[in-house]
Write a structure and sequence with these properties.
The chain contains five helices and ten strands; from the N terminus they run E-H-E-E-E-H-E-E-E-E-E-H-E-H-H. The protein is of the alpha/beta class. The chain has a single domain, classed as 3-Layer(aba) Sandwich (Rossmann fold). The chain has a five-stranded mixed barrel with strand order 5-9-8-6-10. Strand 6 and strand 7 form a beta hairpin. Helix 1 packs parallel to helix 4 and helix 2 packs across helix 3. It is globular. It starts with 6 loop residues before the first strand and ends with a helix. This is Nucleoside phosphorylase domain-containing protein.
């Protein structure tokens, strides 16, 4: 699939990446490195591993693989907890905060993703959910690693709700994460293609 702009995708978990790999017919990049990388023309997908410490090396690797002179669109795709939305709902982050006061505002492209909202990046999975608040463990590291060199209008964070007050973190496993992403893959693909064209 031909894109006007290079797309760099980042997931934390292999189960989050697998539906994307299938959807875009991505191929494992060889030689195999410590950070799994899947590619096709115009798209690079890295699987970082969970948590903040895993994000910066994955982004550095993607940056090294990005063609010189290109201005890629960056998308962090994964799961999140949410205090109000049902499991399986898509959320496009319009701001990211951390418990210690860091804050980023993001642009929300017009389109089919109806849920926009705040994402609170935390150090460990949440068992207590605030209304209208989403929770993940990678977004602040994603933004902090990119911010010095990448304008935030080329950075997007798209999450699928995996847990909430009715369905806690104990319900999450790789099979369920794969299904949650797969069930939304049409909308995810539409979003990815739109931001690549708008790039």
């Amino acid at each position: 699939m031909q894109h006007k702009r290079q797309l760099n995708l980042l997931t934390a978990l292999p189960a989050e990446a697998k539906p994307l790999i299938k959807c875009f017919a991505l191929q494992r990049h060889q030689p195999v490195g410590a950070i799994p990388l899947y590619t096709t023309q115009g798209i690079h997908l890295a699987v970082s591993g969970p948590g903040l410490k895993s994000i910066k090396p994955a982004i550095s690797y993607l940056q090294a693989m990005t063609p010189k002179g290109s201005q890629p669109v960056w998308i962090n795709l994964g799961i999140c907890g949410h205090g109000s939305l049902a499991t399986g709902e898509l959320l496009l982050a319009d701001q990211v905060t951390t418990p210690d006061g860091l804050h980023w505002k993001l642009e929300s492209p017009a389109g089919s993703i109806t849920n926009h909202g705040q994402l609170n990046c935390v150090a460990s999975p949440q068992a207590v959910y605030q209304p209208q608040m989403a929770y993940d463990m990678e977004s602040s590291g994603f933004l902090a690693s990119l911010r010095p060199t990448t304008p935030l209008d080329r950075v997007h964070i798209l999450k699928v709700v995996s847990d909430n007050p009715e369905n806690g973190i104990e319900t999450i496993n790789a099979k369920r994460v794969n299904k949650l992403i797969t069930d939304q893959i049409s909308q995810i693909r539409e979003f990815i293609e739109r931001v690549a064209e708008d790039g």
